[in-house]
Amino acid sequence: MDGCRQGTECSRKNTSSGQYSASRLAAAHAGHGARMFMEREMLAISLTPCRNCVECESVFAIIAWKGMEMHPVVNHLIQLQELMFIRNEEKVTSGLARLDQMDAAIKDMHDKLQPETRTRFDRLYRKDPIVIVPISNGVCAGCGLRLPISLVQAVRQEKEIHGCPSCARMLYYLEDAPRWVGTAPKRSEPRKVGIQRFSSQSLMIPRLQSETMEGIITELATKMEAEGFVDRADKLVEAALQREAILGTAVDHGLAFPHVRGVEGGGLTLALGITAKPVRFGESAEPVTRIIFFMAIPIAASAFYLKLLAGLTETFMKPENRKALMSEKDSEGLWKALCKVTRATIK
Ligand SMILES: [Zn+2]
């Protein structure tokens, strides 16, 4: 295991680790997305030199996910953090049935960390759930500190895991992430409140054209790009579909919350689309989904995102609030209805 840790050739042999790992994760993610998850993992095995390493086996998926090779331990940590977020998202959207499985997967990944890395992870986690963050444009995505060029280079080389001098979070280098390109509000503008802080009328689609998950996510991401909030809609779609493959975001009451975490810079952005009739979103057996919130989330807003998700879930548990959105015919009406029904739940 030690060989892998430093990114050198792994000496540990376990011929069945591929299957073992895939079935283990498939069990952990039983139901939604298990099949796709396995396929991606298999695909990723060919990308990594450490395919026989027990420590690294559960990080294959993220290597495929990021579409490039990364330090195996960095991958492991990113995926562990992501699983912890996904677990908490499940919790706030009342997906309680899947929590035990998520906890088992998290424990498994946590146990597989080297003691030294685990201690460091735990120490940071006690302060804040965001433990490992990308460097974007030379800035720590966790705290916003501009990092010395020498440190950025060292992080890029991935010989060891460096920490941010200010917030101490572990750093990794990420090229080519989708970016937030919206404009910050001018001082003269009245201060925005509630849902208006991260969405707008231009991001409302009262009648989605598409009837598939991929089509709907593409429509919403394209809207975000066209309205000047993010760049690289294609990247957003790809990342959102990969998130769906780990665990579907469709929940009860015809709601779905597809999203992308790790958008560079800026603030959280939310787009809303309504389908004319119920659609099958992800792995759900029946077409039941009608209200789809698509969100682009900077890593630093991950904790806030959970609050927003809880607020939206609370709001739309009530049938009258869902009806208020579904009866609107144009974006102006939909936007007004969304602002009105979330007034008490989203501050
Ligand atoms: Zn920092």
Tell me about this structure:
The chain is an alpha/beta fold and about 350 residues long. It has two domains: about 1-130, no CATH class; about 195-340, Mannitol-specific EII, Chain A (3-Layer(aba) Sandwich), CATH 3.40.930. About 45% of the residues lie in helices and about 10% in strands. Strand 1 (about 130-135) and strand 2 form a beta hairpin. Mean pLDDT is about 80; it is low at about 1-70. The structure holds zinc ion. Zinc ion binds near residues 140, 142, 166, 167 and 169. Zinc ion binds near residues 142, 143, 166 and 169.
Provide keyphrases for this structure.
Mannitol-specific EII, Chain A, disordered N terminus, 347 residues, binds zinc ion, 13 helices, 12% strand, alpha/beta
CATH architecture of the largest domain: 3-Layer(aba) Sandwich
Class per helix and strand makeup: alpha/beta
The top-level CATH class of the largest domain is: Alpha Beta
Instruction: Figure out the total of helices.
Output: 13
CATH topology (fold) name of the largest domain: Mannitol-specific EII, Chain A
Which range does the strand content fall in?
5-15%
The level of helicity is: 40-55%
Inertia-based shape = globular
**Integer-rounded radius of gyration:** 20 Å
Low-confidence stretches: 1-68
- Helix and strand element order: HHHHHHHEEHEEHHEEEEEHHH
Mean of the pLDDT scores? 79
Q: Name every ligand kind in the structure.
A: zinc ion
Q: Which assembly state applies to the chains in this document?
A: single chain
Task: Let me know the CATH homologous superfamily of the largest domain.
Answer: Mannitol-specific EII, Chain A
Number of DSSP E strands:
9
Tell me the major beta sheet: 6 strands, mixed
Number of domains: 2
| End-to-end C-alpha gap | 47 Å
